[in-house]
Design brief:
Elements (H helix, E strand, L loop, with lengths): L3 E11 L19 E10 L2 E7 L10 E4 L4 E4 L1 E3 L11 H8 L4 H6 L4 H9 L3 H17 L2 E7 L6 H17 L3 E9 L8 H18 L5 E6 L6 H13 L3 E2 L1 E3 L7 H7 L4 E4 L5 H7 L5 E4 L1 H6 L7 H6 L5 E2 L13 H12 L3 H8 L1 H6 L17 E4 L7 H4 L6 E6 L2 E3 L2
Parallel strand pairs: 1-4, 1-5, 6-7, 7-8, 8-9, 9-10, 9-11, 11-12, 12-13, 13-14
Antiparallel strand pairs: 1-2, 2-3, 5-15, 15-16, 16-17
Helix pairs in contact: 4-5, 6-7, 12-13
The chain binds N-(iminomethyl)-L-glutamic acid and fe (iii) ion.
Length: about 425
């Protein structure tokens, strides 16, 4: 049965576009189209029509929602998460407060290896149940599509277990999911790095590709984790198996990650807390999306990526959450947008573009997500009454999202 939902009297229909760009860069990021006093018509899970209230055609909807004083947004797209994990790591949080660094904790077998030990002891069903709580939480803060990485398994069986859980989230919840194989997240305890790289390239990648468990390949290119040459070998191997690269680059050091990302034609290079002019120049004119993860920079007290400089020099920029138990235990995209505005001097318009159009590009979803455009998936949210869109990042830590609709269906909290 065709299900028609009319949302009328919308104060502002945000990010409505007749045609979607490839992505938004430089000054283009300032332009956030908003149609005032608008309607939106949803049918069969898709955006069927929208326009100004004066032009409202005669429709016979199954349901009508009055959005007076409210804004309607396309769902946020979170292009970088580690949402499947076994347990939180608040013990390490306390160690960090007392002065330990992320790298020191990792060197003592904490950090990623701590999460790996716990994940290895957790069954696939239990992992799914735990992830489901986080899924419900991020849906209510406006996320409609998400990328989920492996990387806490570190054995072939456990990496595959994580990816199966991520795929199951895509099938059994209304969230749209893309998956990434991040075996190269850390070297398992007691193993030589060269042996682990061999395991990744000769066993893990072929097995994961065979079962179609991943869309992308990722690596943590960082001092003490994977060097640029090792990263390149892993990403190139993934490419041969149909996995497009994306990577963790320049989080703790100027490690050469951005250069490897561009060289391997990665779809995105993420983190970028430690970049300079050389990395900015390297990204110019490329199809690789620089992605800031402001929640991780905030939580680890790292410098924030030089977003203002990057955008002013013409680069595109995406914003994602990095939701994970070690460096960013939040998948709250409105909070990420607040941090982008407050700590990276992005305007609300730039930050919203960064979390919709540009993140949709970064996980190959722009054809169906990222904007209010006819024919796209009806994954949207309706805000509480708001005077302007700037209230969203301004009200950091508050939830101004009132109703969520994914694939044309209401998702109740
Ligand atoms: O993106 N930097 C590497 N990976 C994650 C953190 C993983 C963890 O500490 O569990 C990140 O920040
Ligand atoms: Fe990450």
């Amino acid at each position: 049965m065709a299900q028609g939902i009319l949302i009328k009297n919308i104060k502002g229909l945000v990010q409505m576009r007749d045609a979607t760009p490839t992505f938004l860069a430089g000054v283009q990021m300032q332009n956030l189209p908003i149609l005032v006093n608008a309607y939106l018509y949803i049918k069969d899970g898709l955006i069927s029509d929208f326009g100004s209230m004066e032009m409202l055609p005669s429709l016979i909807p199954d349901e009508t929602i009055d959005a007076s004083d409210r804004y309607v947004f396309p769902s946020f797209i979170d292009s970088h998460t580690h949402l499947v994990f076994a347990t939180t790591r608040e013990d390490e949080f306390v160690l960090k407060i007392k002065g330990a660094t992320y790298a020191e904790i990792a060197a003592k077998g904490g950090g990623i290896l701590n999460s790996a030990r716990k994940l290895q002891q957790t069954s696939e069903d239990e992992l799914f149940e735990r992830a489901l709580h986080r899924v419900k939480e991020v849906i209510q803060t406006g996320t409609g599509a998400i990328e989920i990485k492996s990387g806490y398994g570190l054995t072939t069986a456990d990496e595959m277990k994580m990816l199966r859980v991520a795929r199951r989230i895509g099938k059994q919840t209304p969230l749209t999911v893309k998956t990434t194989f991040l075996g190269a997240h850390a070297v398992p305890q007691g193993m030589q790095k060269k042996d682990y790289v061999k395991l990744i390239t000769e066993e893990m990648i072929p097995a994961i590709a065979q079962e179609k468990l991943a869309d992308y390949i990722d690596a943590f290119c960082e001092q003490g984790f994977f060097e640029p040459d090792e990263t390149e070998e892993i990403l190139e191997c993934g490419k041969r198996f149909g996995l497009r690269p994306r990577l963790h680059a320049n989080q703790l050091h100027r490690s050469g990650g951005v250069q490897v990302g561009v060289k391997t034609n990665a779809i995105s290079v993420d983190h970028l807390e430690n970049i300079g002019q050389e990395e900015i120049d390297c990204l110019k004119g490329k199809m690789t999306m620089p992605t800031a993860l402001p929640g991780a920079a905030f939580f680890l007290n790292l410098p924030f990526p030089p977003a203002r400089k990057m955008i002013d020099e013409g680069l595109p920029l995406a914003i994602a959450s990095d939701y994970n138990p070690g460096s960013a235990p939040s998948g709250n995209m409105p909070l990420m947008i607040s941090l982008a505005c407050i700590k990276m001097k992005m305007t609300p318009e730039e930050a919203i573009n960064a979390a919709t159009i540009n993140t949709a590009y970064a996980i190959d979803l722009l054809e169906s997500h990222g904007s209010i455009s006819i024919g796209k998936t009806a994954s949207i949210f309706i805000t509480k009454p708001m005077a302007s869109v700037a209230l969203l990042p301004y009200s950091f830590g508050s939830n101004l999202i009132d109703q969520v609709m994914l694939r044309g269906e209401r998702v109740r909290s």
